[in-house]
Design brief:
alpha/beta; Rossmann fold; six-stranded parallel beta sheet; 9 helices; 10 strands
Length: about 220
């Protein structure tokens, strides 16, 4: 069954059976007070606004059986997968691998690397650990999507202009249709969030479509009852 979704630059029809919900990097270090994001001087309340919309979308996706995929940015404990150019930037005391408020910064297995409890993955939902900003880079995301016969992605997560944008661009280059749920994404910089969404849907949807959690839930209600 095809479902029509209100979106920019134009409405888009999608088949839930061929659609995946991809929730990008909703990790404790980025979203919780006292985490890595806050130690860098960021106001985490700016990104926490995306949690509630993500929760509503995730609950509905689970109800109707959408494929749900979670990603986490982070590196091996020995940092062999972390390029020097990525490590050696910023304050030396707040670099990847350094001790942080929730364990070593952006290191797999540390408390800060975990997805926030509000959006904790369920058994059977793929969790992809990525060493870069894009969800396709050095992960098996494309295999998971192809095995699931997926052609459309509903994208949520943080931050809009970094990991979300990179992942959407990667998806576009690989032939997937990416629908970004704007209120399910956020940035520490509201102006970056706003411009990032505009860039996705500009020029006839050069990278994808932009919709909202409310419009998606309305569309799914009409399509599934």
């Amino acid at each position: 069954m095809m479902i029509e979704l209100k979106a920019a630059p134009a409405n888009i029809a999608f088949d839930p059976a061929r659609t995946a919900l991809v929730i990008i990097d909703m990790q404790r270090d980025f979203l919780e007070p006292g985490g890595f994001g806050e130690t860098l001087g960021n106001d985490v309340s700016q990104v926490r606004v995306a949690i509630a919309p993500c929760q509503r979308v995730l609950a509905r996706a689970r109800e109707i059986g959408l494929l749900v995929i979670h990603t986490r940015e982070g590196h091996r404990p020995d940092l062999t997968d972390a390029p020097p150019a990525k490590i050696n930037r910023g304050n030396p005391s707040a670099r990847i691998g350094a001790p942080g408020p929730m364990g070593r910064i952006l290191v797999r297995g540390e408390p800060g690397h975990d997805i926030i409890p509000e959006l904790a993955p369920r058994a059977g939902e793929p969790v992809l650990d990525k060493p870069g900003k894009g969800a396709f880079y050095q992960t098996d995301l494309e295999i998971v999507l192809r095995n699931g016969h997926i052609d459309t992605l509903l994208v949520c997560g943080v931050t809009t202009e970094v990991c979300v944008h990179t992942s959407v661009r990667e998806a576009n280059d690989r032939g997937y249709r990416a629908i970004v749920l704007g209120d399910c994404c956020a940035s520490y910089f509201p102006e970056f969030h706003a411009v990032g969404l505009k860039m996705i849907s500009a020029q006839g949807g050069i990278f994808g479509w932009v919709s909202s959690s409310a419009d998606l839930l309305t569309a799914l209600e009409g399509g599934h009852g």
